[in-house]
Amino acid sequence: MALEKIREINQSIFSDIVGFRQHMHRFPELSWEESNTAAYVESILEKHQISFSRIAVNGVVAIIHGSNSSKKCIALRADMDALPIHELSTAKYCSTIPNVMHACGHDVHTASLLGTAIILNALKNEWEGSVKLIFQPSEEKQPSGAKAMIDAGVLSNPKVDAILGQHVTPELEVGKIGYRAGKFMASADELYIKVIGKGGHAASPHKCIDPILIASHIVIALQQLVSRNASPIIPTVLSIGDISGKGATNIIPDFVEMKGTLRTFDEKWRSEMHQKIVDICESIATGMGGKVEVHIPPGIPYVENNIDLTNQFVEFSKTYLGDDKIVEMDIRMGAEDFSYYTHQVPAFFYRLGTGNIFKGITANIHTPNFDIDEEAFRHSSGLMAFVAIEMLKK
User: Fold this and answer.
1) Are residues 223 and 238 in contact, defined by beta-carbon separation less than 8 angstroms?
2) CA 289, CA 299: separation in Å to the nearest integer?
3) Helices marked H in 190-266 — which ranges?
4) Least enclosed by CB within 10 Å: which of 132, 303, 363, 387?
5) Are residues 137 and 198 in the same domain?
6) Helix 35-47 × helix 14-26 angle, to 10°
7) Residues 85 and 205 reside in one and the same domain
8) Of 366, 345, 29, which is closest to residue 167 (Cα–Cα)?
C-alpha cells in the first residue's frame, strides 16, 4: 500500500480531527462519567459506517475488517476521561465545565484514533486482517478502565494478537515520536495510612500517645525501605504526599492520616514492598504505644513494551516520518493503565510529541495551562494506521 495514500487521507481529514479534539476539549468528563464523550465517539463511527458496541459502562469498541479478516487482529487504544483541574486558557476551545479539563491529552488520543479509524475504513479493501478500536474510560482513576475493558472481553472476539497505544508529551516537539523497548512506565499503588494514638493537651504529652510523632517516624522509616531494601537495579519511588493531623498549637490529635504512592518496575518486589510497608508501620506504631491501619488498594502494573513490536514500530515509523523524527526515551516513573493490556498480549505504548517552544506550548500534563500543538494531527492518525497495517502483514 502506498504511503502517500494514507498521508493524503490524513491531510484531507486534518481539520475534522482537530474539530473532534476541540469538541471533546470543550466538554470534558471525569473518569467513569464519559457518557457524552462515548456517545460523541459513536456518532463519528456511525457517520463513517464503522460498527461499534458499548462495554464497561462508557467504553466503546469498534472493529474494522479488512480482506481475509480472520488472519490477524491488531487493537488500537485511546482513553477518554479528563481531570479535576480548572483550565487557565483563553483558547476558543477552552473547557466549558468548571474544574474539569483535558489536562492529560486524552481528547487528543481519542480524536487521533477516530482519524485512524476513518483512514483504515477508507482503505479496508487494501489490507488484510482486522483492527479493533478501543475507546476506554477511566484511565486516570481507580478502578482502572483498562482492567474493566479487559474483564468485559475487549481482547477477545476476535482475539487480539497485539495492541498499540499512544500518549501526548510536551517534552517532545511536535512532529516527533518517542519510544522505549521493554519496561517503560512504572507500576503505581496508592498508600493510605492511619496512625491512631490518644489525643490531649499539647502541654501534657505524657498523658497522650502522640500520633504525629509516630507518623513522623513512619515517614522516615518508609524512605529507608527504598534506600536500604530496594535493589539498586530496580527503580523504586515511595513518596508520602499528604499528612493530616487535625490538631492545633495546643492540641495533640487522636489520629493522623497519610497518603502516598509507591512506584516500581518489578511485580515480585512490588508485592514484597506492600508487606514491608505494613510491617514497618505496625512495628513503629505498636512500639510507640499506638495503632495503625494500612490500606494499599490494588494498583496498576508497569508498562512492558514488547521487544519485537518495538522494533517493528521503529522501522515502520522511520519509513513514515523519517529517521530524525523517532526518539528513544528513558524509563518513566509515571504510570499508565495501558499497562494492563501489556501484561495480557504483546503490546507497544509510544509518545506523541505535542510541544512547540516557539508557540509557547510547553506546559506539562496535569497542569491548568496544558495544551498541544494541533499540528501533531498532521501525522498522528496516519502513522498509527500505517503501523497497524504493516504489523498485520507480519
Assistant:
1) yes
2) 31
3) 211-228
4) 363
5) no
6) 160
7) no
8) 366
- What's the number of domains the chain is made of? 2
Sequence-distant (≥ 6) Cβ neighbours of residue 15 within 8 angstroms: none
pLDDT tens per residue across span 66-121: 999 999 999 999 999 999 999 999 999 999 999 999 999 999 999 999 999 999 99
**Residue 299 is which amino acid?**
G
Residues annotated as catalytic (active site), given as ranges: 81, 139
Instruction: Determine how β-strand 251-252 pairs with β-strand 130-136.
Output: unpaired
Identify the H or E element spanning 14. Answer: helix 14-26
Do residues 7 and 111 share a domain? yes
Cell numbers for 89, please give them.
486558557
Q: What is the model's pLDDT at position 2? A: 76
CATH of the domain at 211: 3.30.70.360
Kindly report the backbone phi and psi dihedral angles of residue 328, in degrees, each rounded to the nearest multiple of 5, phi listed first. Answer: -80, 135
Query: Which grid cell sits at 127?
Result: 489490507
pLDDT at 394 over 90: no
Grid coordinates belonging to 292: 495503625
Report the C-alpha gap between 56 and 70 in whole angstroms. 25
Convert the pLDDT of each residue in 117-154 to its tens digit: 999 999 999 999 999 999 999 999 999 999 999 999 99
- Torsion-angle region of 35 (φ positive above 0: left; ψ -120 to 50: alpha; else: beta): alpha
